[in-house]
Amino acid sequence: MKNVDIEVYISNLINFFEKNPNDLLVLIGDLQKDEFYVKLKERAISNFEKGQDYVLTKSQIVDVVLGLKLPIIKEEKKPYIEKIIQRTKFGDIILN
Question: Considering the entire predicted model, what is its pTM?
Fold first, then answer.
């Protein structure tokens, strides 16, 4: 019976974000909204199975967004300097 409640809750969230696309854009940025909705549903089901309230808190929604964004952020590697002394055609540069 509670799965129906979860479905209604998630569909209400989706309807809210569909009617307020700017709020969704501010929250998730360039993430895929379908993937975001799936993760929200998974989190709500997980809460219910743990005996918690299936309605997500603000921090849980932020955790979902961060969980989706972190792999993207980790892929964007910045150049790493391996040595303190860099050898160039102009001579040695000490990065200290």
Answer: 0.68
Angle at 23 between CA 56 and CA 44, to 5 degrees: 15
| Per-residue pLDDT tens over the stretch 14-33 | 999 999 989 888 888 888 88
**CA nearest to 37, candidates 10, 73, 5, 63:** 10
Residues 40, 73: Cα–Cα separation, whole Å: 20
Positive or negative: CA dihedral 39, 45, 47, 49: negative
Look up tokens 């509670």; give the residue.
Answer: 2
Q: Which two tokens stand for residue 82?
A: 């391996």
| Percentages (nearest 5) of helix, strand, coil residues in the chain | 65, 10, 30
| DSSP-derived 3-state class of residue 85 | strand
CA distance 2 to 63: 23
